[in-house]
Amino acid sequence: MADLQVAPWTLVIPVKRTAIAKSRLASAYPQHRPELARAFAVDTTAAALESPLVRAVLVVTDDPVVAADVTAIGARVVPDLAGAGLNGALEHGAAFAAAEYPGAGVVALSADLPALRASELTAALAACTADRSFVIDEPGTGTTMLAAAPGVPLDPRFGVGSAQAHEGSGAVPIALVTIGSVRRDVDTAADLAHAVQLGVGPRTADVMSLVMGAATGTEGLAC
Predict the structure, then answer these.
(1) Would you state the torsion angle of the CA atoms of residues 20, 25, 30, 35, taken in this order, to the nearest 10 degrees?
(2) Distance (Å, rounded) from C-alpha 142 to C-alpha 137?
(3) What residues bind phosphoenolpyruvate, as annotated (predicted)?
(4) Are 25 and 32 in contact (CB under 8 A)?
(5) Annotated binding-site positions for phosphoenolpyruvate
(6) Binding site residue list
(7) How far apart are alpha carbons 95 and 105 in whole angstroms?
(8) Which residues are CB-neighbours of 95 under 8 A, at least 6 positions away?
């Protein structure tokens, strides 16, 4: 993990309870959807912790399994606020980050980036030179990362059309072509197939191995 004295960013990753998360994967992965949601969050967190520009990773969640998993790899858990929604959870996490890590900028990062590379995240963070910056998702309408410089409100506007909403609020899009893993969030089976092509993290790879085993009738037999 980065040197706590010099790393300029604190990351906030919101994770919904995985029993209800990733509903659009349910038809393709009815048995493994919750496991995939947990795996995405853990792989995203692990990659974020490897970036030398990341001072700390705060996971906002009320899922006890996710909380235990991310704590084990070095993240801090911030309990979610009931009924606050995604943007409320991010505001809550950002306030905690500003209080606990003064002087660091705050970054909201999607928990659904199973192919995330620490090197690509680092490149995206290094490009965040405006007061507020953001990364547009692969489809081009959503947001996978929103960064606010120290002392600047995060002002998250995640949801349908968030890329346009963030740009309209004054945030500057990051125009890098080498950060595909930062842009590849997963909501659908097609998204996941693309992430697998990019190369997913170990937790997601393990679940996908179970998925393939179930599909061929050999689940649990792989070594």
Answers:
(1) -60
(2) 5
(3) 143, 159, 162
(4) no
(5) 143, 159, 162
(6) 143, 159, 162
(7) 11
(8) none
Cα distances from 85 to residues 4, 81, 159, 179, 184, in angstroms, run 30, 8, 10, 28, 22
What digits encode the pLDDT tens for the residues 69-100?
999 999 999 999 888 899 999 999 999 999 99
SS3 115: coil
CA distances from 56 to 109, 135, 148 (A): 13, 20, 15
CA distance 154 to 106: 7
Which two three-digit tokens encode residue 51?
């970036």
Burial of residue 217, with CB atoms counted within 10 A of its CB: 0-12 exposed, 13-18 middle, 19 or more buried? exposed
Share of the chain above pLDDT 70, in %: 87
The number of angstroms, rounded, from the C-alpha of 34 to the middle of its chain's C-alpha atoms is 16
The letter for the amino acid at 202 is P
Burial (CB count <10 Å: 0-12, 13-18, 19+), residue 147: buried
For 16-128, strand residue ranges (E) read 54-61, 76-78, 105-109
